[in-house]
């Protein structure tokens, strides 16, 4: 049947594509600073990728016309996916081990940021491919929504996902703080005024981004307004334009200084207390500080973006940009080449901008002489 034909085509693509993506990321792991590469956690992550690569390569010469091969491939994908379930916290633990043992300099910081963006984006992409194949072709996995094509919803109701993510975050917030702000949702359909806003998207990805932003906004609002008789609502505006879908989340949680905005997207920086890997009862609104950088990667994966705009002393606007047209929503992937490997060289060029008033005495004397 046509389903079997699609499965053979998907098998032929994935047996080629997944090993390439795994091999590329293994090459980049080897370019990490030796001291980070040597941490037990990073070694464990590397061993998972090596094992999975070996298992996937075994299918390279096998026939797509053999039903047992197709069935074994699904089992292997599920095994690989389960093996890699804890990649994010384990890699995060490796970075913590490294930071605790060695002094981190700005160059290493930059290299680790560059690597983790690419590493986690690669992981998002491989999980997406494996999930699609298993959801479409594994009888045991076909329990999703009948409208969905694997994990993709061709008619994703954005407001519904906003409400789901808000309610989940609100429940956590109420458990932890015994109170939570309300939601004020506004929708503007610039393409079809008055119509419901739907796009082709992966609801779980959108939920992940929104849930993270709502957690941050709720935490900030409750803590900033702890002496107020009532909490300001979190205002969400969903706008569908000709090319873009934008979701703006506005809170009155006090904002953050401009100098800290980029740090919020850094894997080496977290405002929250450090979690213990074995502690399941940890504060639910905090973690490794990876929520924002990984949410931005989810947005960028299908050519979107996630930005923060903050007014210190007042509040923050977070905006998720997604492509309105499915034809524009194509994967954005890291490419391993010479340009990529150069990013791991441990040299940094001198800054070609300066702040004279913070410079040395000789610098100010030279300025005066001029």
UniProtKB/TrEMBL annotation:
Its EC number is 2.7.11.-. One of its GO terms (biological process) is regulation of glucose metabolic process. Keywords: ATP-binding, Kinase, Mitochondrion, Nucleotide-binding, Transferase, Transit peptide. It is an enzyme of class 2 (transferase). The keyword Kinase applies. GO terms for molecular function: ATP binding; pyruvate dehydrogenase (acetyl-transferring) kinase activity. Residues 359-370 have a biased composition (Polar residues). InterPro entries: AK/P_DHK_N_sf, BCDHK/PDK_N, BCKD/PDK, HATPase_C_sf, HATPase_dom, His_kinase_dom. It catalyses: L-seryl-[pyruvate dehydrogenase E1 alpha subunit] + ATP = O-phospho-L-seryl-[pyruvate dehydrogenase E1 alpha subunit] + ADP + H(+). Residues 347-370 are annotated as: Disordered. CDD domains: HATPase_PDK-like. Residues 203-326 form the Histidine kinase domain. It holds the Pfam family HATPase_c. It comes from the Eukaryota. Belongs to the PDK/BCKDK protein kinase family. PANTHER family: [PYRUVATE DEHYDROGENASE (ACETYL-TRANSFERRING)] KINASE ISOZYME 4, MITOCHONDRIAL, PYRUVATE DEHYDROGENASE KINASE. Homodimer. Interacts with the pyruvate dehydrogenase complex subunit DLAT, and is part of the multimeric pyruvate dehydrogenase complex that contains multiple copies of pyruvate dehydrogenase (E1), dihydrolipoamide acetyltransferase (DLAT, E2) and lipoamide dehydrogenase (DLD, E3). This is Protein-serine/threonine kinase. It comes from Semnornis frantzii.
């Amino acid at each position: 049947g046509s389903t079997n034909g699609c499965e053979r085509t998907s098998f032929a693509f994935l047996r080629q594509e997944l090993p390439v993506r795994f091999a590329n990321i293994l090459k980049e792991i080897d370019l990490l600073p030796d001291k980070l590469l040597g941490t037990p956690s990073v070694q464990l992550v590397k061993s998972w990728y090596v094992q999975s690569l070996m298992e996937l390569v075994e299918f390279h010469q096998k026939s797509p016309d053999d039903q047992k091969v197709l069935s074994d491939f699904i089992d292997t994908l599920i095994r690989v996916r389960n093996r890699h379930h804890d990649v994010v916290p384990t890699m995060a633990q490796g970075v913590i081990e490294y930071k605790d043992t060695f002094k981190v300099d700005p160059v290493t910081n930059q290299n680790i940021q560059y690597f983790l963006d690419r590493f986690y984006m690669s992981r998002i992409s491989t999980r997406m491919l494996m999930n699609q194949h298993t959801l479409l072709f594994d009888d045991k996995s076909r329990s999703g929504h009948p409208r969905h094509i694997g994990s993709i919803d061709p008619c994703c109701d954005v407001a519904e996902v906003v409400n789901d993510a808000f309610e989940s975050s609100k429940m956590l917030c109420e458990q932890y703080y015994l109170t939570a702000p309300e939601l004020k949702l506004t929708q503007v359909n610039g393409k079809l005024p008055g119509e419901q806003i739907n796009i082709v998207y992966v609801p779980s990805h959108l939920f992940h981004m929104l849930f993270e932003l709502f957690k941050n906004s709720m935490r900030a609002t409750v803590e900033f307004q702890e002496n107020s008789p009532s909490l300001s609502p979190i205002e969400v505006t969903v706008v569908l334009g000709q090319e873009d879908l934008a979701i703006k989340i506005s809170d009155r949680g006090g904002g953050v200084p401009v100098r800290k905005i980029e740090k919020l997207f850094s894997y080496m920086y977290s405002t929250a207390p450090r979690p213990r890997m074995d502690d399941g009862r940890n504060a639910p609104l905090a973690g490794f500080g990876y929520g924002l950088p990984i949410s931005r990667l989810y947005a960028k994966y299908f050519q979107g973006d996630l930005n923060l705009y903050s007014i210190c002393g007042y509040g923050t606007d977070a905006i998720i940009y997604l492509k309105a047209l499915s034809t524009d929503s194509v994967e954005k992937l890291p490419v391993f080449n010479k340009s990529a490997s150069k990013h791991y060289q441990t040299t940094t060029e001198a800054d070609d901008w300066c702040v004279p008033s913070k410079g040395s005495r000789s610098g100010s004397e030279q300025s005066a002489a001029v």
